[in-house]
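We emphasize that the prediction below concerns an isolated chain of 182 residues; any contacts that depend on oligomerization or on bound cofactors are therefore not represented. The input was used exactly as deposited, without trimming of termini.
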Amino acid sequence: MDGDIGYVNVISLAFGRHGISPKNCEARGMAFRTLIGRRSLSYMTERIVRPGSASKGGMELIIGPMFAGKTTELLRRSEQRRSAGQRVLLVKSSVDTRYSRVEIVSHDQKREPCYSMKELSPLLSEAIVSDYDVAAIDEAQFFPDLLSFCLEWVDRQKKTVLVAGLDADCERRKFGEVLDLA
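Result of the prediction step, given as a token string:
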């Protein structure tokens, strides 16, 4: 994805295990910053693919294991974007029915109305794309068309995409297309 996008941020949240280490970041030309959260040790990495204006599009990946705070962080970043006057499209996988079918709900009970979808491709229509500046996707590992959706929104439409999802299953195997975005 070293095309014409403005930036890619990878936020890896972990309890005790380190998804992205300082050594890995250095080898990939990434800046490294350590953040201490309430309940977790978090590593935030940022790779500037091509500096430029916000109109270049960009992506922020929030990855980590279950209960790491991915949804909370996604909702926080979505609210920041809305506060800045951007129009945010919230989407979650229809597979996730734990708390609500029509809301993204974090473990600390923060709630936001959203679209619940099996696939993201219906959101590629020009009418929908033109109505939003940012797409925020929760439980991204369940979308079979995540990569193609993000490529369209970021590379071709020059929009921002916030993606939250598991990076691996309980056996530490790649889960869905989330890691294909990094």
